[in-house]
Write a structure and sequence with these properties.
With about 325 residues, the protein is of the alpha/beta class. It is built from eleven helices and twelve strands. Strand 6, helix 7 and strand 7 form a beta-alpha-beta unit.
């Protein structure tokens, strides 16, 4: 039986057109097609638990996001980890591979991090306040040149940030499980157990790691104390890695200089969150990678993986679902 591909979200119509043009033998359908859902082997986009339960042939799910935790519900998690099949009208649904669009937003997220770093160092909100109040206010601020950025989670985003930070004359220290490789634009590469050391050598600590069982809650008050009263924290990947209650304490008490947050533990950020009114803190609505080029790159990753799937070659960006929080 030919592969049936379900497409939801992303650049939906464009994806459907390109799949049909490249692979005319494949059936491509929207997720609200009940017959296609039962026959689908491949799905691109979010599936509900009920939909997963009605897809006995499902073998591969691709997420349009770089971090897939919001796209992996309990039913898909069970199928992906082999922890037992989801409730299904058909016997014996097989295991499911999950892939992500990791890397699609690396460039704009690196730019977002750099923007937040500059805004914090230059106290940019003061200029915005002065403009709103028609005040001509000049003050002494910081510069990035000669400072050190520590990158917690040196992956796709981290590397793009490192390249840009080097162009600004900054020192760069990365942290990841693998050692530095030739060509990595870093001065040092630390291992995940050295997060406090990373903070201690950084003027700006940028969180660019995925949210996993290992990274959840990894940055708390102890690490923020190492960052120190002149240091800034920037989060562009996922909320939940930094303990937000500890961050609130650290900023209020001057343990750190301030924070730039594009990712938050709960999104949308609740109106009552203390982060909104935290001094020396810049909030953006997890919007750093919302560019047309990000969507284009996500589509390209899926289409490349579909070619690989049909040729029975290894897929890119396979997710270890068992590591998700």
């Amino acid at each position: 039986m030919a592969d049936v591909v379900i497409v939801r979200g992303g650049q939906g119509e464009r994806v459907v057109e390109r799949v049909r043009a490249a692979h005319p033998g494949i059936v491509v359908a929207p997720a609200d097609d009940a017959d296609a859902l039962r026959s689908a082997t491949v799905a691109a986009g979010h599936l509900t638990d009920d939909e997963v339960a009605r897809m006995p042939r499902l073998a591969w799910v691709h997420s349009w996001a770089a971090g897939v935790e919001s796209d992996v519900g309990p039913a898909l998690r069970r199928r992906a980890t082999g922890a037992g099949p989801a409730s299904s009208p058909a016997p014996g649904p097989g295991p499911v591979t999950v892939t992500s669009s990791a890397g699609n937003g690396a460039i704009p997220l690196a730019e977002q991090a750099l923007m937040l770093m500059m805004m914090l160092g230059r106290q940019a909100p003061r200029w915005a306040d002065a403009q709103r109040e028609h005040r001509w206010e000049r003050f002494t601020h910081d510069e990035l040149y000669g400072r050190t950025v520590g990158i917690y989670g040196y992956g796709n985003v981290g590397r793009e940030l490192a390249v840009r930070a080097r162009a600004f004359g900054m020192g760069v220290v990365g942290l990841r499980r693998r050692p530095a490789e030739p060509g990595d634009p870093v001065d040092r590469m630390l291992t995940p157990d050295a997060v406090d050391e990373l903070a201690a050598v950084s003027d700006v600590l940028v969180v660019a790691a995925p949210l996993t069982d290992r990274t959840a809650g990894a940055i708390g008050l102890r690490t923020l104390r190492e960052l120190g009263p002149q240091g800034h924290l920037v989060v562009v990947s996922r909320g939940g890695i930094v303990r937000e209650a500890d961050l609130v304490t650290a900023v209020r008490e001057g343990i750190v200089a301030g924070a730039g947050l594009d990712a938050h533990a709960v999104e949308p950020l609740p109106p009552g969150s203390p982060l909104w009114d935290l001094p020396r803190t810049i909030i953006t609505p997890h919007n750093g990678a919302t560019t047309r080029a990000t969507a284009d790159r996500g589509t390209a990753i899926f289409l490349d993986n579909l070619d690989r799937w049909l040729a029975r070659r290894p897929l890119r960006n396979v997710v270890d679902v068992g590591q998700l929080p």
